[in-house]
Structures are given as C-alpha cells and as structure tokens.
C-alpha cells in the first residue's frame, strides 16, 4: 500500500461497485444503510438499477463509491452485464434465512469471475443477520479474520433463529473463491460500513487512476494486489471511516 | 462460440428452404397487412381486414357546431353542412373502421403476405380522424340516394346503452353518412360484407350493453341530460357513478384545480355529446387536441382503454377478468410469490396503495394477468404500471389494458428475458446517436451508459421517473399514438438537458442532472422571460412540444426499422448469456459432464424445441391457409396471422418452451443415439396418407414432404425403453423434461464410468414401483430393451476400444459376430433371470415357485430361445440336479421337466403337450409371480461378458455428445451398417468368432450377404422378444381356463448353492427345444444358416453359463 503523507489532501478516487443477488435479499437496503444510514421496511423494488454514491475515508485515501444497485428479480439478470461492466468491486448479497439465495449468489460469483473485469473485488455478504440468534451474530468476528482462519467456527444453527445458511458454509465457500465475506444487517447496521471499508481497502491502488477509476486497462495484476492487500491490512483498519 | 449463432443458423436453414411463402422470418421483418390493420385501429387479434374502400365521411350538421376548420375537405354545397372527411373505410369481422390517415399498408397486399409500410401511422394507432365502430354498436344502416356517389350509407348508432327497455327509450341516435367511392361492384361487395357483419354483430349487443353501462362517458352524458330535464331523480338513482379507479376514493394525484379538471370535463362533455361515446366515439381533430392537453381524471381511464384498444378486448370478453380470478382462486405460483413481495412497494407514496383496498386491487389485477399469460407471469415494474393504471381505472379495465401493454404496446418488455426492453434500449441509443451526435460522442467518450438511465423510463413508462401527474400526461398520448411516444419523450429529455449533460463526465452526474430536471418539471421553462405567456410555459409543456414537434420525425416506422436492425444482436447476446448462466446453474450433477457436453446438450435441447415450435407454427399456418381456402366465406376466418407469435421458441424471446415433451425427447435422442433413430422411416407417400401412423403428430403434412414432422432431422423411433428413460428423467412428474432434467439424466448415464452404477440405473429404470424388484414382465422388457439398444451395434466405432482389445479382435467377420453374440447374451440373460428369480410370496412355498418357474422357463425357452439348437444331453444335467438334491422326495417322477425335454425333439404327443403347457404355465403363471432383485440382476449381467461390457461402456457411449456430432454420421446409418460392433472382447468371443466365421462363409457369400443375414438375426432377436411376450400372454389366457390342480408337483428345495446345477439344467433343457421354432421364426430359406449359427450361439450361452458358475464360486 502507498505511504503517502497523511497531512496532504488525501487522493480521491472513484470505485464502481455493483450489487447483485436474489430479489428481496436487501441489496437496496444495504446501500440505503451505507449511504443514508437509513432503513425502510417497504422499499420500492429496484427497476433496472439504482445509482448512488458515497465516500469512504481511508487513512491514505478517499474512495468514492459509485454504487450500482441492481434489480434482483430473476428475469432482470440479463440486464446485469450492463451494470457490472467495468465494475471494480461487487457485493454479492444473499439472505441468511434463504439457502436458495446463497445458491443464486454463487451463480453470480461465477458469472462475475468469468465475465466481469478481471481482478474485480468480490465480497460475499449474508444479509439479514438480525434475524439470526446471537450465536450466528458472533460469527461476524471470525468473518473478519484472515481467510486462513478456518478453525474457529461458532455455528449454533439449530437454535430458534431464522438462520438457514450456516456461517461456516458461506465462509468456506468464500475462502475457496477468495472472496471477502461478511454477515450484515441492513436493519441494525451491523457490519455494513465494514463491508464497504474492506472493499475499499481491497481495491488495489494501481486501479485507482483518478477521480473516476477507469477499469479494464490495468487490471491484470490487480487480483494479486487484492490478495496482498487483503492479507496485509485486512481488517486491521480500525476506522469506521466511511462518511456515513 | 458454438452456441446460438449455430442455433440460429440451423433454424434459418430450416425455415428458409421449407418456406417459400411468407414465414415467420419474413413476417418478422415486415408485418403482415392484417397486423398493421389491427395495430392501426387497435383491434383485437381476431380481426382481419376483409373489405376496404375509399369513402367520405359526413357528420350530420349538429355535429359541426364546433367547426373543425382544418379538415373540411370538400365544401361542396350540395352536401350541405357538416364536417367531411375523406379516407378509407375498412370492414373487419366485428368492426367498421374509418380513418383519414393513410392506411399503413398497401391495398393490394394480400392478407397474409407482408407488405411495405405506407402512409403515416405505420400501424401506430388511431391517430387520424375517423372511428372504430364495433358492428354491434350500429343500430341501423340505410342506403341513401345521392347524386354524387353511387352508394351512400346513413349509419345510425346506438348512442349510449342499447337497452331496448331502458329509460331513455330513444337515445338520440348518432347519425353519420358515409359515401362510398368505388366501382359499383366494389361498393356492393362492401355492402354485402357489412350486412353479414351486422347480422353477426347482433350477438354481441349483450356484451356491449354490459360494458357500456359502466363507462364514465355514459354517466357523464346521462347525468347531464337529467340535470337539464330537471326530473332526473329517479334516473339518477339508477346510474351509479362508475368505478373510475382508486382516485375516486383516495383522490387523484395533483391539484384538480390547477389541472383545470372541471374545464376539461366540460370540453369533453361537449365533444362526447356530438361525437358519440365509448363505443361510438368519432375522432375529430378536437379529440387529439383534448388528449394532448391532458385528460380529465374521471374520463382518463375510459379514454385510455378506447385509444389503446383494450376496450375492444373487454367488449369481446367482458367477464374474462372475474372468470380468471375465480378459476385460479386459491392456486399458487411463482408469479404470485413475486407479486406478493412487491405489493407493499408499488407507488407507496399514493395513499390508495397504503390501504388494503388499493393493495387488494393491485394484487388481483396482477394475479389475474399472470394466469392469463403465464409466459410473462409477473415482472417487476408491472406493479408500478398497474398501480398507476388503477388510480384511474377499474380492475377489469386495468387488466385488459395491461394485456394490451404487454402484448402489443411494449412487446417483450416484461417477458422472461426482457428482450423487448433490451432491444428498445438499443433502438433508443441508436436514435440518440442519429439525432444528437454530439451528445452521443460525449457519452461514448466518457463511457456513460445511456440505457442505465433510460431503461427505467421505458420499463415503467416514466411513472417512477417523473412526478405522477406528468407521467400520466405522457401516458395519455402514449396510448393514443403508440410506443414511439416513449422514444420521443426520451429524446426530448436529452435534448432539453443537452448542455448540462455535456458537462457530465460520469454516470453519477448524468443521472443527477436528469433527476433534478424531473423534479422541476412543473417550473417555468423560461422563468426570466419578459413575455408572461412564455413565462407561463412549464418545463413539462416544453418537453411535450420538443417531443412532438422536434422529434415528429420519429415514427413507428423508424422504431420498427431500428428494432429489426438490432434484433439479431440483442437476441444473440441474451442467448449467450442465458446459455452461460443456465449451464452454470445446472447444479452439481452437471459437473459429471464436460463443459462441451453441456454446451452440446444445451444447444441440442433448445434446437429441438425451437425447431419443433417452428414446425408446429408452419403447419398451423398451413392448416389455417387451407381452412381459409376451403371456406370461401372470408367471414368465417377467425384466426389470422398473429404478428406476435413470430419466432416462438427462440430462447431470448422469453416465453419459449423450456420443457420437452415425449415426442420432442424422442427427436432429441435421435440426434444423440443411433438406437433412437427409427428403422422404418415413414416415407413421404406414407405421410401423405390422410391417416398418418404417427397420430401424435396430428397436423397433416399432406403434399409437403419437406415438412416431415421431424423436420430435416432423423425420424426417431418409439420404444418402451425411451419412454422409461423419459419417465425416469422426468423427476418432477411434469410429463416433460427441462434442460435440468436432461442434464441430470445424462449425468447419471454418462457421468459415471462405474459399471455397477450403470447396472443399478438400468435396473431402476425397470423397477416400476421402486421396491427393488423387477417382475417377470420387467425382465422381458429389459431384454427387449437390450436388444433394442444394441440393434445398431453396441458401441460406436468412433470410440475405439483399447488397443489390447483391438488386438484380440482380428478377423473382420468377428465384428458382426458381436452383435449376434449380443443377441445370444440377451437370450441367456432372460433365462438366467428366470432361474434366479425369487418368488414374490415367500409364504407360497417359495422354493417350489422357483422351481416351477424354472421348469416353466425351460419350456418357455422354446419360444424364447429358439435360436439355440441343442441336440444332445438334455437329460443329464437335470437328472444330476435331482439326484443331487436330497430334499426332493421323488425327483425323477415329479419333475415335469424330464418328459418334456426328452420328448421335445420329436413331435410332442397330446399328453405331453398338455404337460408342457402346464409346465410353461408354471413359469409364466401370473399367479406365481416372481421377480429379480438388483443383486440378481447384477449377477446375471456380470455373468455375461458381452452384457458386462455393454454396461461398462456400451450403454453410456451410445449417447453421443459434443465429442462426436452424430447428425451427419447418423444420417447414413441404417440397419446394414454393422460396423459399430460391440467392443466386448473375450476369449469366448474370439473362439466363437472362428466358428461363426466358418459357418457364415459356408452358407452365405461374404460381404453383403453376411451382413444381410446378420441384420435378419438382429431383427429376429427383436421379434423373438416380441414372441416371448405373445406367448406369455397366451399362456396367461390358457391358465384362466385351465384348472390349477395340475400343479401339485412338489419339487425339491433348491439351495443357493444349487443354483449352478440348476442353471446348467435349464440351459440344456431350454436349448434343446429350440430348433423348430427357429425355423419358424427365421422363415424357411434361412433356416439352415440360422441353425448353424444357433449352434454357436448355444455354445456361447453355455460358455456364459460356465462363467456364471465361476462367478458363483
């Protein structure tokens, strides 16, 4: 990572981020929480895609997220390539109370890995963590840990909670595919800022050309960088630095 | 990529040679006249242009109180006062239409063939002046005497509800005069048509009454009359206020005073009074103007349905909505789940949709539509559109309008793949490029993707982009003038914001510029202007002006041209996306197959479906054409060419079939497996027969040999095995297969190289009740299937066996032998199955049953195994068996086998025959059911090298996937190609090879003769199996008549370890009796050769039995 002096005005760059996932898993709500720190019970369904921006302050730089929030209904899937084109980051969201949504998320990951710009930073996000009992909520901590940390798992899925997707299941999948992994709740705000911060950190500096990151050109090495960043600085970022 | 381009090409290859006449492809480029006609007048799909004639419409003087200046075309005095319009008068089955705008099609065009666009409407909608009268709304037609025209008709319409016993006994009938211009003949023909139509129209009057009674225009005019009379109390009670949407309860959006709603209503009342209402409305220039300034709230719904044409649909079937809801009440679907998710989030800012009432209406309309059009179901954005409609319309009105939207105005927008949406985005982009090149370059330069912004505009008709009141104004015009309005508005938005947009260098800014523009639509467009009039012009008004003046050149024709230009690319895109995703989503099972194989299966699967859909379409069209030709009276033709059904089946078009029925499955298999190709392709002459044997393809293919029901592909055969496979793969019991089913099925068959699982799989195929047992019937069926599968060779030559195996196979005559050998293996298989079969009821002296079965089998083998000639040592094994068995009390006496077998070589005498019959009965006795279990089956298979090999390699490799495209190769394959011999090789086989080779050489000339002979053998094998079945049935019948006391023979108990002996006995005994039957079956001339071969076969069989012994130990 760069060691630019913190005194100088921090360099700012744009990152195009796309949200994908099954209908009604809470993509728009995540964005709403991140951008406006707000939560609405009945949000209008996203038609096509919604666009929002939000800044995220890192110690060394400022990332301006250009967030493309896509429609989740299955038939809108064929529009998705239009939105994830040139995206540098993707949030693939599933609902921890709906196993089918994880399957769908896996499809999206596969799609992105094959079709999106190489080196795209993908985060797998299990939303609606508030619906799980306490046991599940803890697991967010180990999600933050380095990808290698496989041993510590605290799944108490048998409880009364609505959780249907074990943290371990999703986590091991995420590790396998080298994805960032979080469980969030757009309703309570749990982990939401962390997701975006982690993504901001994972975006390699090389791909941040200017205020508007033009994807596609320099991304061949990106993947490597992303991994390095992940392992190196990882979740050590203390700040909830996002301006939310 | 060998995906869709492939598919598309294939499809085109198929269509074009087969379709000298206008087919779907041609139709697609240039819509048929019927389509254009329907679009121009917004008529239902059942209508077609039957008659047309140039005419002049004269509106009787009282209509002309409001002088419509511009369009008075002929001010000749003698025709008196009134407005005159010259245009075309059209007659369809149920409508009389008149328009001053040039027709969008050539008069000379025939009904079905495509024609070029002419005129200005381009099928866009009822833009011109004129009317669209349902014939049932015409009360009377009189012929007038006129000097200037041959024919003049005075038409009186039902004005208002045509209720004979209504209170307004004589509704002021609206009168219009039409003068026909044309030759006498033309005019007479037209009048005749009209007469017929009117007669038919009487039936519709009831519908008309139902529909018209609840229109607001009716209410408006009735209440108006009442007021004037001042005695309306009674009448007023009768006329409830019609349902004009949620706005009635929750108020209409916007400030009614600001919208000058009252003024608009007044103007409309005047207009309606003069020009008819709902059914009988005449479009004069004022009509268009009134729509442009925005419709009054309460009338909005009605005018929308009139201009969009949904009114005509409702007229045809007024109860469809309630009936649909009733019919499907309580049922669930994916669409309903999706609808449920969105109900609370559709126009939530409108109070009506925070209430149960509003949400209930929305739910019902969306649900009803999802049932009537299941291929669309529910698409997000429909909730928003319908919610908007419901503010101004009743539920049924919204329901029909939604149909018109989805089917016609926004084709493909809400379909499964949303291809219409994507296509129109491309069209929009290209229009921007054309009309605003600088802006376009800017967008390209900064990589701003326009469709990201514009897609929601189109998909939800600007409803959630603009403030509602303005979106509704756009809709007012949209329903009248058609889809081009969406483009015009979109272009105008960009044009007006052009400068700001040129400053935007990223999507974010771009979007926010437009967002803030929409938010300020009600502000003055020229706030700083000196001129107060100019200052009063709102941004929205400016938008409308720019849209319809500056972009007046954007016509429906432009849109259509652009659409057809981009269609290919858009569809191909979607298809490759769909293919990619669907292959990826096939689940873990699919991983057993290679990506290539999956791609192949995908293409093959959809090609079959696509081609079948095409063929069905073509055949249907042909049938229609025939029907049309047959019936001289054009009035009886109801089905025309639907412009929307074009290219059904293409993946990207969404509502394509994704399920394969059994016939399609057969066709699918025929392209993959040789055994699935029929042995007796129905020749064209056969097809010409009025009663085609293939009744499942009911549509006649007479006189069109090129249009075989199987298209250009190979005709598939039909076999029970295929049906079983189909049923097995059809895990959802849907009576059809999805791609997922097919892939999972193939994964099970081809995915594993494990012989055991292959055997189990096969067994399960025949285990109907999946209780782990296959009964007698099943065994026979399995053997049939084995023969069926092997009749073209067991493995493909392409899949050459391992070198070591090839080495063993030295002589060329060997290869045919394998097939023959296979046959014998199957024979042995049946026998063994019966030997080892378990009785069904252990209580029923299980062992006895086994033995009886065994006994029967020996006889049974006469029919079944006649191929085997065995002259010697019939008794020894049996005897040995009995003597060996200590449990048998009187072995030799009690065994019915001995007499039978010993005597069988000679002509059996009466008594013996009886005995034999009994014995046979025992084996085949349905009262002594038997079954084999999987372990038994496995054992029997493994006992035979040939079968073992078949299950190891042959079966799965008989399905050819990506590695070797079969189509070309297979077309040459017929029964005489025996080159695809099984690659099973073993010592036994090679031994036999020698023997048979000799025999063959001795009897038939080498080469063709041998082949022919072998063909016979194979097909005989199949017949043998059939024969077995027949005998089985016969015996069963016999049994019914015969008493069962003859079966008291006690037999010794057989231990498991006794099986080998038993087997040997069976072998010999069965073999012994076979000769005579062989000759019967093979026919006399071949008998000699057959006999010789049988010998060898028998040897192979006993060979195999030896192996069984080994296996057992």
Write structural notes for this entry:
Chain B: This is GTPase-activating protein-like protein GYP2. Chain B: It holds the Pfam family RabGAP-TBC. The complex is a heterodimer of chains A (244) and B (1113). Chain A is of the alpha/beta class and 244 residues long. Chain A has helices at 27-36, 80-84, 99-115, 134-144, 167-176, 192-202, 222-232; strands at residues 12-21, 49-57, 62-70, 89-95, 121-127, 180-183. Chain A has one domain (12-236): Rossmann fold (3-Layer(aba) Sandwich). Chain A has a 6-stranded mixed beta sheet, sandwiched between helices. With 1113 residues, chain B is mainly alpha-helical. Chain B folds into 5 domains: 4-12 and 577-637 and 644-740, no CATH class; 31-212, Pleckstrin-homology domain (PH domain)/Phosphotyrosine-binding domain (PTB) (PH-domain like, Roll), CATH 2.30.29; 235-409, putative rabgap domain of human tbc1 domain family member 14 like domains (Helicase, Ruva Protein, domain 3, Orthogonal Bundle); 419-553, Cyclin A, domain 1, CATH 1.10.472.80; 752-1112, no CATH class. Chain B contains 49 helices and 11 strands. In chain B, the strands form 2 sheets. An 8-stranded antiparallel beta sheet of chain B has the order 5-6-7-1-2-3-4-8. In chain B, β5 and β6 (151-157) form a beta hairpin. In chain B, α15 (356-372) packs across α17 (395-409), α34 runs antiparallel to α36 and α42 (934-943) packs across α49. Chains A and B meet through β2, α2 and α3 of A and α14, α18, α20, α24 and α27 of B.
Helix proportion of chain A: 25-40%
Mean pLDDT of chain B: 69
> Can you identify the CATH class of chain A?
Alpha Beta
Helix share, percent of chain B: 55-70%
GO molecular function (chain A): GTP binding; GTPase activity
Keywords (chain A): Nucleotide-binding
Organism (chain A): Lophiotrema nucula
Pfam family, one (chain A): Ras
